[in-house]
Amino acid sequence: MNKIFCFCIALLISCLSVLAQNPLHIPDTLTGPIYNLTVKDSSKIFFPPNVTPTYGMNGDLLAPVLIMNKGDNITLNVINELNVSTTMHWHGFHVSPQNDGGPHQIINPGTTWSPSFKVLNDAATYWFHPHLHENTERQVNKGLAGMIIIRDSIESTYDLPRKYGVDDFPLIVQSKAFDVLYQLAPFNSYDSIIMINGTIDPYLQVPAQVIRLRLLAAASTRSFNFGLEGNIPFYQIASDGGMLDQPVQLTRLRLSTGERAEILIDLSALQGQSLYLKSYASEFPIGIIGAAQVSLNDTLPGYYTNPLNGNDYNLLRFDVTAPTPNPVTTIPNSFAPLNPWLESQADISRDLIFSLDTLILLYSPVEGPFLINNQPFHMDSINIHSYLNNIEIWRLINTTDVAHPFHIHDIQFYILDINGNPPPLGQHGQKDVVLVHPNDTVRFITQFETFADNNEPYMYHCHILHHEDEGMMGHFLVLDTNALVIEELIALQEITLFPNPAADYLYFDTKNLKEKGDFHITLYNVLGQEVKASIRHEKEGILKIDIANFESGIYSLTIKTAQRKYQGKFLKP
Ligand code: C2O
Ligand code: CU
Ligand code: CU
């Protein structure tokens, strides 16, 4: 009832807003090495004379754009002047878990959090937002989000637009719902108001030359299908965490929540004209929030009356003015090659299955709650143990009716395939969010480099913020094997692994491990290829490994615990 009422008002507001056009707000910038961000309660007049309470960083909504260089040593002071706790996460950043700003790095009211680290990411467009357990949507929706631009020595060698606010523009694209009291309401179905950089119904004067747009899809749930009026082509040059190897010519670019892309548009021939950047949501397939139909089986309340769903709508009007001195006039041919890990390098492949939580009393196939590997998120359980420098393949399997933008902290990944097919060219580069459609399987490959910690986890989750808040999230630890003693089990073998040779079963006495807790056993054949075996508990501390189906030969096995890696060999006659 409450939701429906809010929705009617939101619709009314969206109709009125068409009357006024507003210059696009270009956020101020902050440069390092020290960034001060004051998070505070504020307010803003979106619909005069009504005052809307907001949150902002150094302002009344959103945040300054942070500009960084790869290799810089920086400190970010996040000063929490809210009367509630928050956190601040550097989305896409390769940082230690302590500096990540996930739900474990709480900033209490009246306190300051000051992570300090070296910027290790490649030139691209990143962002930051709160990540407070069960409160991410509320805080982001009320105004807490900002863009980060990283530059590096490779990107700077190309003839690209990079004059901020002149030929290089940040576009933080969001959709919001307002309730009867003109409050920003975190109800995902009624988000009928589009805001770019916090501006409703914006226009922007742009020079008649090649311009660069940094697109950040930062709505709480909605995906956008970017395109230019008249299907004017544009060129994608970067994905979430780095440049592509060459510009990809497109007329549409779909970004789901959390994703970024940088595009070039050649406006040289359009001086004096206006054109719209639009979202062509009518072209979305079923299952994407924003499509004409959200699912075959069910819908969100009020979904079809939200004018954004299934329709093409304007995002931003460009008014093309005279070129600047020394304009960029051409689209580059190519950039540095990409360097993805090879499938053959992978240490392990893991499955993450997305499903609907039907144990909850009030679940909905389109609203969730959703689970990953049948587990809801818990603040104190670890779902995945990985190891420093592990190269891993993660297979994301979506068994639900809606598409989920999957995001992982700490690393950038390369998509190996989507249902066995290579990803679209614009998704070949470094990514930290991938949209997994209903019934799809997406595989990516990555490496957990640089940072390991045996206690402090990183997060992976759906970036639809209420899915995340409702438990579609997990923890992974990157365990430290660098400092580990690599011990050969061979000396211990008689008492630890037996018998040797082993025909049908190999027994493993875990009591000889120097520490207790979780461990992983991996078996390899003589070629170093991983071989699978069923492993079961025989009796107290003894594991029974079924090798009856193994071909004869020499096998090795590794046992990784939180502290150590053990290796051993056995013969299957
Ligand atoms: Cu953009 Cu875990 O978040
Ligand atoms: Cu993140
Ligand atoms: Cu989701």
Cα(first) to Cα(last) distance is: 71 Å
Rg over alpha carbons: 25 Å
Report the count of strand segments: 43
Helix content: under 10%
How would you describe this protein?
This protein is mainly β and 573 residues long. The protein is built from 4 helices and 43 strands. The strands form 8 sheets. Strands 12, 13, 14, 15, 17, 19, 20 and 22 form an 8-stranded mixed sheet that branches. Strand 38 and strand 39 (530-531) form a beta hairpin. The radius of gyration is 25 Å and the shape is globular. Mean pLDDT is 90; it is low at 1-19 and 482-494. Bound molecules: CU-O-CU linkage and copper (II) ion (CU) (2 copies). CU-O-CU linkage (C2O) binds at residues 89, 91, 129, 131, 258, 407, 409, 459, 461, 463.
